[in-house]
Amino acid sequence: MAVSNNITAVLNFLAVMCSIPVIAAGIWLASKPDNDCIHWLRWPIIFLGVSIFAVSLAGFIGAYWKKKGLLAVYLVFMLILIVLLLATLVLAFVVTRHSGAYSPPGAGFQEYRLQGFSSWLRDHITSSDNWVNIRACLATSRICPSLASKFTSAAGFFAAHLSPIQSGCCKPPMACGLEYSTPTTWVGEPNIAADPDCTIWSNDQTKLCYDCNSCKAGLLGNLRQEWRKANIVLIITVVILIWVYLIACCAYRNAQTEEIFRRYKQGWV
Predict the structure, then answer these.
(1) Nearest Cα residue to 203 out of 185, 178, 177, 181
(2) Could you report the per-residue pLDDT of 77-108, keeping only the tens digit for each?
(3) 75-81: long-range contacts at Cβ-Cβ below 8 A with a sequence spacing of 24 or more?
(4) How many whole angstroms separate alpha carbon 195 and alpha carbon 180?
């Protein structure tokens, strides 16, 4: 019994350690400027990380102090967390599979088409009801104003690797045929037949292309990049947790078997 408990305690200490990078990934996602404008996307990973920490700590305490009831509760809730993690991974991979990106001629950055992203992302993030608040948040952020101090020439701007949200929200689509003045000021007559966003673009710094489909696509492009990076941490974590859980189940079962034999030898059964 003691050996099985020690194994379970060590494994759960490992699981507690695994929760730390998950929480860190959640905090990293929550700190990104685009996620600051989508409040409900900021917390799921942090919640999962804190839950893994709490459940693993309960398993460690149950194993170390031989609390069989606490160990049983740990096994149930850890299974639930593993299922939630797997569901989160599957959803993240499905909805971020397509990028909607394309490379305009003569530019080092990419532009993005809204229709190139999954319908789930479009419906849950860039729908009319959600975009009103997201647009207001983006307009008051430093995402676009920061470009003015970063690029002082057209050559430097066109050679730059802009983030998807900068490419989509801070400038007009390249197909509009406007001439660069500053990163957020463009002059000339737009080719309105090339892209519907050409009629929406404005040099007004409170408007820019915040109402454009390219801005919505840029936001989804940013989210896609960030979630794919976070997925690496989640994959490693879920593999370790499944391994820990399977060994813990075997240790718990062996401990129960040892207890039955011990009682049998003492004449309790």
Answers:
(1) 185
(2) 999 999 999 998 998 888 888 889 999 998 99
(3) 75/245, 75/248, 75/249, 75/252, 78/15, 78/241, 78/245, 78/248, 79/245, 81/48, 81/51, 81/52, 81/55, 81/241
(4) 18
First CA to last CA across the chain, in angstroms? Answer: 18
Closest CA to 114 of 105, 124, 126, 104: 126
- Cβ–Cβ < 8 Å for 157, 180: yes
Helix (H, G, I), strand (E, B) or coil at 79: helix
C-alpha pair distances (Å), 205 with each of 36, 144, 156, 169, 170: 20, 9, 21, 11, 9
pLDDT in tens, 190-211: 999 999 999 999 999 999 999 9
Partnered with residue 186 across adjacent β-strands are 180
Maximum Cα–Cα distance across the chain: 95
The 10s digit of each residue's pLDDT in 240-261 is 899 888 888 877 776 665 555 4
Strands (E), the chain: 101-102, 111-112, 179-182, 185-187
Q: Are 222 and 164 in contact (CB under 8 A)?
A: yes
CB burial readout 214-244, b (16+ within 10 A) else e: bbbbbbbbbbbbbbeebbebbeebbeebeeb
**Dihedral-angle region of residue 188 (phi above 0 means left; psi in -120 to 50 means alpha; beta otherwise):** left
Match 């929760």 to its residue by tokens: 19
Q: How many residues does the chain have?
A: 269
